[in-house]
Amino acid sequence: MLQGRSLIWIPCSDSASSPLDLKRIREPTRATSEGRHHMILTNQPGNQAHGFNLRPAKEKNGKTLSKDRINHKNQLMASEVQQYYVERGVTPYILYVLQGAVIFAGDFIRQFHKEFIYELAGVRAKSYEQNEKKGPVEIAVGQIDPELVRGQSLLVMDDIIETGETLLRFKELLLEMGASEVKTLVLLDKPSKRQFLIEPDWKGFEIQEDQWVFGYGMDYNGKLRHYPNVVTLVPRNDS
Ligand SMILES: O=P(O)(O)OC[C@H]1O[C@H](OP(=O)(O)OP(=O)(O)O)[C@H](O)[C@@H]1O
Ligand SMILES: Nc1nc2[nH]cnc2c(=O)[nH]1
């Protein structure tokens, strides 16, 4: 599949002081309907990208979101989640929302105590294309085991909440399927972008709303999910 295509190579760094030069990704930029510029990423050589640096995402308070801080938060939240279910004596069915939550969920569940018992599944949901919301979220209902929902406690884990539609629709769907309880958990939140009435039961960080974040499972225009840290693009003058 990759035959005849040149591969892009992006060096990885978590340091705000050494922003990466995206000239290394030789792709054109284009304006979105919000006026934001973004890169069109392919493995084909293209025009030189210009004027952007990559830097770690920032919290609302301006703090940099480093991998260490994410790991620490995962430990704290996993411990709270585990305690919540153990105290109630229930086995949760944990659904993580694909694709974005794939790395977060993998890191998160490895923080659980070895004897903690739960069921786990990844469920596809999608509503964004090219870094913009394109319509109502579509959830792959067939990936959810109804036997594990009826009368059970569910936890839906997502990488990020913005409008809130994805998590709200999951919650509604699972309650319709007969769940006795649906809790929600996210790593990142852009609270002022909310359009649907839902607040996650657990959340890691509130982040600055004007940034499109990617890496750590999250996509930039469908790509770059493998990037190890949560990063964003900034015009070169702002970095
Ligand atoms: O709060 P919302 O406005 O609903 O946005 C949050 C959702 O957006 C992203 O999913 P996306 O549709 O981009 O699919 P992906 O996980 O495959 O990237 C993200 O992973 C969340 O699931
Ligand atoms: N990858 C990614 N997905 C999102 N879905 C809603 N907001 C975002 C964002 O900033 N990044």
Automatic annotation (TrEMBL):
SUPFAM superfamilies: PRTase-like
GO molecular function: hypoxanthine phosphoribosyltransferase activity; magnesium ion binding
Highest taxon of source: Bacteria
Alphabetical list of Pfam families matching this protein: Pribosyltran
Reactions accelerated catalytically: GMP + diphosphate = guanine + 5-phospho-alpha-D-ribose 1-diphosphate; IMP + diphosphate = hypoxanthine + 5-phospho-alpha-D-ribose 1-diphosphate
Residues of the Phosphoribosyltransferase domain: 92-220
A GO cellular component entry from the record: cytosol
One Gene Ontology term from the biological process aspect of the record: guanine salvage
Protein name: Phosphoribosyltransferase domain-containing protein
